Amino acid sequence: MKSGVSKKGTRPNGIWTPANIVTMVRVALVPLWLLFAELSTPTMDNRVSWSALLVALLYVIISLTDKVDGYLARSRNEVTAFGKFLDPIADKLAVIVALCYLLEVGDVSAWVLLIVISREFLVSGLRMVVASEGVVVAASNLGKWKTAITMIAICGLLFARALPMPAFGFIPLDVLSFWCLMAAVVLTAWSGVDYFVKCWPYVNGSRSAR
């Protein structure tokens, strides 16, 4: 039998697949993005802040790579255990680091960060509990939606720091992005509750793996 081939078809050879490389690049870009963000200045005197605009554009690239690595992994039949491990970490790192930065500059509340981080601790703990029972609880689309909307809101807040003009008519971009972030916070809490309800039978011992 040829190396890297099984009855199920072609399997990826090691961790160095295109999808995993994109994910690793995304992880590496996060601290670089934070460095640029710390050095940037917000817009003043109705002029575009080019440094802040670069920060916003770089975050858009980081956000879009989440779709790129997923597409590459599925289309090339190269879904790996390493990719399943690193991809959600890259997403969480991009979101939490950006929210920490926006908290530092006063654009988001500490409550937003508290809800996001608490949800991640809750879900991670529940995954460990059900994994000990040999069970994998499928994630719902709520998790995907909350990540996507959170990243959109963050991009909007970052662009608001770079651009002097309102967007979408008379609604300032920062206001629109704020309410988008509030929707993301609701989805974050909802997805955490949804995951807890799915895992509760394994947490209270009323169900075990067969």
Shape: globular
The structural domain count equals: 1
Q: Count the E strands.
A: 2
Strand order of the largest sheet: 1-2
- Spans with pLDDT under 50 lasting ≥5 residues? 1-10
Under CATH, the homologous superfamily reads: CDP-alcohol phosphotransferase transmembrane (TM) domain
Overall CATH architecture: Up-down Bundle
- CATH C-level label: Mainly Alpha
Average pLDDT works out at 82
- The name of the CATH topology is Four Helix Bundle (Hemerythrin (Met), subunit A)
Biggest sheet architecture:
2 strands, antiparallel
Number of helices: 6
Gap from first CA to last CA: 34 Å
Sheet-strand content, in percent, reads: under 5%
**String of helices and strands:** EEHHHHHH
Helix-strand category: mainly alpha
CA gyration radius, whole angstroms: 20 Å
Helix content: over 70%
